[in-house]
Every structure is written in C-alpha cells, then in structure tokens.
Write a structure and sequence with these properties.
This protein has 426 residues and is mainly α. 78% of the residues lie in helices and 0% in strands. It has 21 helices and no strands. Helix 11 packs across helix 20 and helix 19 crosses helix 20. The chain is globular, with a radius of gyration of 22 Å.
C-alpha cells in the first residue's frame, strides 16, 4: 500500500499536478484498491487533521508577517542592524545576517523575509562594493533563519504533527537559529576581508540610539512571544493572536504606514496561503493513515534497529535522507508525510523528539533555497531581477555554510536541548 501510494504520488507530481492534489488522488486510489474502507470516511479523516487549535497559530503568524511587510517595518530593522554592525569589515554582509535575525523574530516566514527586507539588503550590499551574486546568495540563505528562529511557522506545523509542546519546540529553535547566524557572520567576515569588500566606516553610537529607538517597538514582538510562551502566560496560538493585535496597532495607529484600505487585501492573501497549508495537512493526514495502516513506521523502525544504529548514527542517516527529500519536495508536505513515519524509529533509537523535529525543520529549509522547488530561490531571483542560474551560482558558498552549520547541530544536540532544560521547559 505504502509503495503504491508513493509511486502514485511521485508519478502524478511529475505530470505537473500540485503536490497536495497528487497526494489526495494517490491516497484515494490506494484505499479503493487495497481496502474496503467506505469512501465517505475520507472526508472525516481529512477534516480531523485540520480541526486543531494548535494549527490556528499558522494563519495568525502568516498574518503577522503580512502586516509587518505592508507596514514597511523592514526599513527600521535594517537601519538599526546597519548601525550596530555596519562599521565592521564586511559590514553590510553582517547587516544582512543581523537584520534577518531580527526580522525572523517578527515574521516566521522565509519568503516574507526576502520580499520585505531582502530587496533592501541586496541594494545596500551592491552599493558598498559587494558582487550582486554574493549579495543575493547571502540574502537567500539568511532568509532561512525565519523558518528556524521563533515564531517559525514551520516549527509550529512540525509540533502540531508530532503532538509535542509547540512552546517548547519554538524556544528550542532559538539557539540553533542564532548558531547558524553566527556561522554566516564568521563566513562573511573572512570572505569580505579576503576580497577586500566593504571597508569599515566609523562606529556611530548616536546613530545606534536613534535607529534603535525607531526599531524598538517591532523588535519587542519576539520578546513578547518568547516570554509569554516560556512563562506559560499564553499558548502559542494565543501568542500569535497577541502578535497580530500588537503589529496591527503599530502599523495602523503608531507608525501610520498601514492604511485601513489594505487590510482586506492582507486578510484575503493570508486566507489563500493558509488554505493551501491546511489543504496539504488534510491530504497528508490521509497518507499518514495509509502508512500507519500498512505498518510503515514500524517497518522503518525495525530496519533501522536491524542496522544497529545508535542515536548519533541514526540522526546522521535521517539528516542525509531529509537533505535529499528536501531538494525534491517542499518543506510543509514533506513534514506532514515524513514526521509520522520517522517518529517511531526516532524514539526506538533513543533520539530526542525535540532535537529530531528541530533538525527536520532546519534540514528541510534547505529545500527552500535549492532547485527545483525552492520557493525562496525563485522569490530571490524575482526580487533581484536575476536569472535563477545566477542566483544559484552566487549562493553556493553560503549554502555550504548553512549545510555545515546544520550538520554541526546534528552532532551537538546540547545546543537544541540545553536552553529549554535551563528554562525548566523540558
């Protein structure tokens, strides 16, 4: 059953049928051929996957990112980042990283990062002597931080699929995200010094204060979310609702950069994106039911145990597997399909589920920046007005840094688990 479903899914996908539709058609065909399950139960199975309070956080965080983007908050964040690190050797490359880190704590979406602050980062780096290919490559790869640092939409989805504490999972992604950002900073420093890009400008403390005051209110968003979730003051879904109200007040009343006339368009766009994600959730639930009915998770667990894999070796095997899958499949459908299948083997091998889920999210985010299905790759090419091939060529080095940083996090789970244990969340 599982093999027929997978072959049907990949065959239909190669014909150009959308992934969610291909998965649904393959699932229906599998059940019709191999089981006597009444077809009217399909709708109930699919609806149950969307009938989740936790998943309500997804459209809310999407709405937060949309409001921030339309409210032109990115400029304030970029100016502050430039004042902090723009004076260092390779400063504008550092600004690229820091502004993505700050925006990550606001939007939770890599595509939103490229669409808003990405264009500013590319133009500024070009203006200071960086080659356009390198500027676009750094912008593309640093945008993945928004899918790791809380409030990451992908982390929320992964937690809801695995039925683990989303609050704990969100906080667990903070240090790994900062570790990857640090790896980008180190790489950019040596790259810039070697090629002599962007000579340093004097540090201006007054400018730091001025830009910091202009950006302080939007930068409070991730702080409110993390403190609220970690303290138990509100759930991740309630935190998303609080964030929506907060950023809407900033855009409409405080900065007055978000006209009320744009609100309907923002809501419609959010509904479309959310509908796509929830439809994937529904069809993936059908596939997950088939895999469970067919005993696929147990078979995978038995196979990995028969290979005598330890926790570290098992995690490395899963990392390589996810790396390959992420190239050919978008992150969200890949998580809905693979997490239910891989969770039993992970637990059987003694791998920590929180560590596994964070590594899964980070590894699949590589698929956002690689062909042929990299959503961020095509977004970056559009923003920079470049050919996709040129963007790929310019992003090879930053992409290698990103891959090596995730590999290091696989080897050292303490970076993922240590902070949540210190906070008493795990």
């Amino acid at each position: 059953m599982s093999l027929f479903l997978l072959l049907s899914f990949f065959g239909l996908s190669m014909l150009g049928i959308p992934l969610a539709v291909a998965l649904a058609l393959g699932g229906v065909a599998t059940l019709w051929l191999y089981t006597s399950m009444p077809m009217d139960l399909l709708s109930q199975t699919m609806f149950s996957s969307m009938n989740s309070f936790l998943l309500v956080a997804v459209p809310l965080f999407i709405l937060v990112g949309a409001v921030m983007e339309r409210g032109r908050v990115a400029e304030r964040i970029f100016d502050f980042a430039e004042a902090i690190v723009g004076w260092l050797p390779g400063g504008l490359g550092h600004v690229n990283v820091i502004s993505s880190v700050i925006f990550s704590g606001v939007s939770g979406s890599s595509v939103a990062d490229i669409a808003s602050v990405g264009a500013i980062e590319i133009k500024a780096m070009e203006r200071h002597g960086f080659p356009k290919g390198y500027a676009v490559g750094m912008t593309l790869c640093t945008a993945t931080l928004s899918s790791i640092i809380p409030p990451s939409i992908l982390v929320v989805i992964a937690g809801s699929i695995a039925n683990v504490s989303i609050g704990t999972l969100l906080v667990a992604g903070l240090v790994p995200g900062l570790f990857i950002a640090f790896a980008f900073l180190v790489f950019n420093h040596f790259y810039s010094v070697y090629f002599g890009y962007n000579p340093p400008t004097p540090f201006n403390f007054r400018l730091v204060v001025i830009t910091g005051l202009r950006a302080i209110l939007p930068m409070l968003t991730p702080l409110i979310l993390i403190i609220g979730i970690a303290s138990g003051l509100f759930t991740p879904t309630e935190a998303a609702a609080v964030a929506v109200v907060y950023v809407a007040v900033l855009g409409i009343l405080v900065y007055r950069t978000l006209p009320l006339s744009e609100i309907p368009e923002i809501l419609i766009s959010t509904a479309r994106i959310s509908g796509t994600i929830l439809f994937i959730a529904a069809t993936s639930q059908l596939a997950a039911w088939i895999f469970t009915y067919d005993g696929l998770p147990e078979k995978v667990a038995d196979l990995m145990q028969a290979m005598s894999l330890g926790p570290l070796t098992g995690m490395l095997v899963i990392f390589v597997f996810l790396l390959i899958i992420g190239i050919f499949m978008e992150a969200i459908p890949a998580m809905f399909i693979l997490i239910p299948v891989l969770m039993p083997p992970v637990q059987a091998l003694g791998i920590d589920p929180i560590h596994f889920l964070i590594i899964t999210v980070m590894t699949l985010t590589l698929g956002l920046v690689t062909p042929p299905v990299g959503v961020c790759l095509f977004a970056a090419a559009q923003v920079a007005n470049m050919k996709v091939e040129d963007v790929i060529r310019g992003s090879l080095a930053p992409m290698a840094v990103l891959t090596l940083a995730i590999f290091a996090l696989v080897l050292f789970p303490i970076l993922t688990l240590g902070p949540i244990r210190l906070l008493g969340m795990y």
